Amino acid sequence: GPRAAYVTEIQATLGDGPCQWAARSRAPVLAGDLTAGRDAARWPVFAQQATAAGVRAVYSLPLGDAHVCVGTLDLYGDTPGELTGQDLRTARLVARTLTMALMALPHASDGQDEELWLGGLAADHDPLYQATGMIMAQLAVGSDEALARLRAHAFAQGRTALDVSQDVVAHRLRFDIE
User: Fold this and answer.
1) Which residues contact 80 (CB under 8 A, 6 or more apart)?
2) DSSP SS3 for 135
3) In the structure, what pLDDT confidence band is assigned to residue 39 with cuts at 50, 70 and 90?
4) What's the pTM value of the predicted model, to 2 decimals?
5) What does the pLDDT read at residue 128?
């Protein structure tokens, strides 16, 4: 829903949060209480923004294996609390099933001309990649620096990185004249 999409964008903008950690570590990250304690202290800015949006807990499981992460299964809760053993087993089963489904998708190199059923998901973030490239050219910096600047600008303006990237791609915002 819209709340989950917004919290996902917060993590993309900050470059930090439970889902980002799960993707990097390729291990589940179970943040049962973003309102206080260890989880709130691990990601203070994310926790503040997530709780302001009504999310009190995040459970993120990597999709992939020990060598590759193709995404994360992210579950959001509106009340603090840990997953039960049964809930965690179910989440792991769903993550394994999603991983198998994603790995079984045809690739463009397989001679498929048809739009893949998940094609729209990746296209939603195309402006972020395009804007990063444009900022690289504008400032003569590498991709990490360009993305960091885009994220910093978004955070300072109280916007998401995707919103700012759309302004860059539409030539409404340039980083070499700020």
Assistant:
1) 32, 33, 34, 35, 36, 56, 57
2) helix
3) very high
4) 0.72
5) 82
